[in-house]
Design brief:
With 315 residues, the protein is an alpha/beta fold. The protein folds into two domains: 85 residues; 189 residues, TIM Barrel. 33% of the residues lie in helices and 23% in strands. It is built from nine helices and 17 strands. β2, α2 and β3 form a beta-alpha-beta unit. α6 runs parallel beside α7. The longest helix has 19 residues. The protein binds zinc ion. The site of zinc ion (ZN) has 5 residues, from loops.
């Protein structure tokens, strides 16, 4: 018995006891096999996004999406203490937050001529790229107002736009409402985006900033189940996951998974998660000769791979 146990242990250690079938493998709906995704998004380049929001997110390991209007950002900060500056936006961007386009000067875009519409988008895109060194690849409409023509224009060279949001701010979002948004997203396996403006000032600010940080703590307590990701990252992940094809074959105990996607890598670069039903056993995964990271939960292995890379082998 002792000998048998030892053989079993050794076999597990070298990873040859798992006999996977091709049906055991799929791309997870969300990163690391999380059940739903939440993007925390903040509109209008408000100073508190720099002084309060970004640091509170970072404390919890979260990153946010900040929709900026270049025309509102102060050239001389001493005359405008209510908006963050380009230098502050650069700092946030360098820390991994997404800094993206909310039009140049916040008009209702459905009321603009075609030239004005293009100008509102272009001017802000150029300012973001020039000041932050990274392009804006998502969009948020001022007043959440859009129509088919506006949407088609902003989606040129972009991977997503915020079309639906839950209100994460002030008296519009009591604790029960916010928890319901999260419970519903978990139940439906959906991706939701919060919309926040000011924390202590602005038209929909909180009575007490602790309401905002309490919600972040609540999200943090669910981080094993919820992916809190930037709008860009979730948009890229879900688009690639949806369009990818996996050519899965088996030779002995080794499975080979060849991913293929038609999406443009420069725009959609993202890791994906392969969900492998291993009955709780450990497996070895490689892509292009390199070992891949794996985590284990609920009898499954979650393996991070590059959807634009070569064959993934599992054994
Ligand atoms: Zn706005």
């Amino acid at each position: 018995m002792k000998k048998l146990l030892m053989i079993t242990t050794m076999a597990a250690a070298i990873g040859c006891t798992v006999d996977l079938t091709t049906e055991d493998i799929k791309v997870a709906d969300y990163k690391d096999g999380k059940e739903c995704a939440v993007s925390l998004t903040f509109d209008d380049s408000m100073k508190e996004h720099y002084t309060i929001v970004a640091p509170e997110l970072e404390k919890r390991g979260f990153r946010g999406t900040f929709w900026m209007c270049g025309g509102w950002m102060p050239a001389e900060p001493q005359y405008d203490t209510t908006h963050f500056t380009w230098a502050e936006a650069k700092e946030m961007s360098d820390k991994g937050h997404e800094m993206s386009n909310h039009s140049w000067s916040h008009p209702n875009m459905t009321t603009l001529s075609e030239d004005e519409l293009k100008e509102q988008i272009r001017k802000n895109d150029e300012a973001i790229l020039a000041n932050l060194g990274k392009p804006s690849t998502t969009f948020c409409f001022p007043y959440n107002a859009y129509n088919d023509a506006v949407l088609a224009e902003v989606m040129k060279g972009r991977i997503g736009a915020r079309l639906k949001e839950f209100w994460l701010g002030g008296q519009h979002s009591p604790k029960e409402y916010l928890q319901k948004q999260i419970e519903d997203a978990l139940a439906a396996g959906s991706w939701i985006a919060g919309m926040t403006h000011g924390i202590n000032y602005g038209y929909d600010c909180y009575e007490d900033a602790s309401e905002f940080t309490d919600f972040l703590d609540y999200l943090k307590s669910l981080e094993d189940r919820i992916w809190v990701g930037t709008f860009r990252d979730v948009a890229a992940y879900t688009a690639v996951a949806k369009g990818i094809s996996l050519d899965i074959s088996k030779d002995g105990k080794e499975i080979t998974v060849v991913p293929a996607t038609n999406l443009d890598r420069t725009l959609y670069e993202t890791p994906l998660t392969l969900e492998v039903n291993t009955d709780g056993k450990k497996i070895k995964a490689q892509q292009d000769g390199k070992a891949l990271e794996a985590s284990y939960r609920n009898g499954k292995a979650y393996i991070t791979f590059c959807p634009f890379g070569g064959a993934v082998t599992l054994k």
